[in-house]
Hints:
The protein has 153 residues and is of the alpha+beta class. Helices cover 50% and strands 12% of the residues.
Amino acid sequence: MQETLQRILEEYRQNEGNLITILQSLEAAFGYIPEDAVNWFSEQLDIPPAKFFGVATFYAQFHLKPRGRNIITACCGTACHVKGAERIINSLTRELQIPSGEDTTEDKEFTVEKVNCVGACSIAPVVIINKEVHGKMTPERLMKELKRLKKGK
């Protein structure tokens, strides 16, 4: 971790970066923003950790907890909601045995996240699996995709 942090710091200084560029680099390197890394940068740059966390919690692109290897994003916009998004999400979290209040499986294989709208209302309900858009999704089709992902471990 130390080598990665040092590399990010050097890039930050060479490119006259800002907090967002550091957070983007951390997200790219670790898949989330580790608290230890924020504290390390805070000390190195004499910037309070609260500034880092303030920016990280403002933007949806940043995550403060480790995420799964497979990211499943469910649209919960109006069109998707009307066409059964909640039923799809419930079947998914049940199948993956994700505890209430959590979004990632214990084995860190899957993260299920909800977003307000992905802008693909004409093919609602929409689920994005590892950046691949799947429209007119049903719980049955999603279970087939899930099995495919589990086989590809």
